[in-house]
Amino acid sequence: MSQHFVPVKIHIKERPLDFKRFKAEWTPTLIVAEADGTERYRFEGFLPADDFLAHLQLGLAKAAFSRSEFEEAKRGFEAVTKDHPGTAVVPEAVYWSGVSAYKASGKADPLKQVGAQLKSQYPESEWAKKASVWVG
Amino acid sequence: MAEVQWIRDPDQGLQQAQSQHKMVLLDFSAAPM
Predict the structure, then answer these.
(1) Predicted confidence (pLDDT) at residue B31 exceeds the cutoff of 60
(2) DSSP 3-state assignment of A31?
(3) What confidence tens digit (pLDDT) does each residue in A74-89 have?
(4) CATH fold label, A16-134
(5) Interface residue of A1, A5, A9, A23 to substitute, partner B, most B CBs within 10 Å
(6) Does ipTM top 0.90?
(7) Given a cut of 80, is residue A1 above it in pLDDT?
(8) Cα A96 from Cα A62, distance rounded (Å)
(9) How many CA atoms does the CB half-sphere of A131 hold within 13 Å?
(10) Which of B1, B21, B25 sits opposite A30 (nearest CB)?
C-alpha cells in the first residue's frame, strides 16, 4: 500500500473539521486523492482485507483514467480482476478496462469484448447491463 | 496486511505525497485508537 499511497488516518474526535472539509459523513470513509487534494475515488463502510485492497486498486486505476493515462488505467483495472477475483468490484473493473482500452486505442472492439465477457460471467451485475449496449 | 505508518494530519500527508510523487489515502475513522 505504501508503494502507491501516503496513508493518512483522520479520527472524528481529533479532527472533526477535516471531516467537513472532505465531506466525510460516515465512518469508515476512504478517499483516494492526488497529492494536490483532488479526490479520485471514495468508498464507505467496513470491508474485509481482500475487498478493501480491491477497492484501493480500483481507485488507483480510476485515478489514472481521470488523468487520461488510459494504458496505465487499463493495466490497473485488469490487475483488480487478476489480484482480487472473488470481490464485488470485479465487474466494474472489467467494464472500465474495456473503456480504458477503447480510450487508448480509439477502437470499439474492446467494448464489445468486455460487453460479452460481462454478459457471460456476471450477467446479474449492473455493469453487464451498462455494457449491454456494446454487444450486438 | 503489513503494518501501516499512518500520518494524522491531512495537510502533512498531502505535502509528503507531493514530495514523494504518490497519492494519498485518507481514512476517516471513529474506531478506538
Answers:
(1) yes
(2) strand
(3) 999 999 999 999 999 9
(4) 1.25.40
(5) A9
(6) yes
(7) no
(8) 8
(9) 30
(10) B25
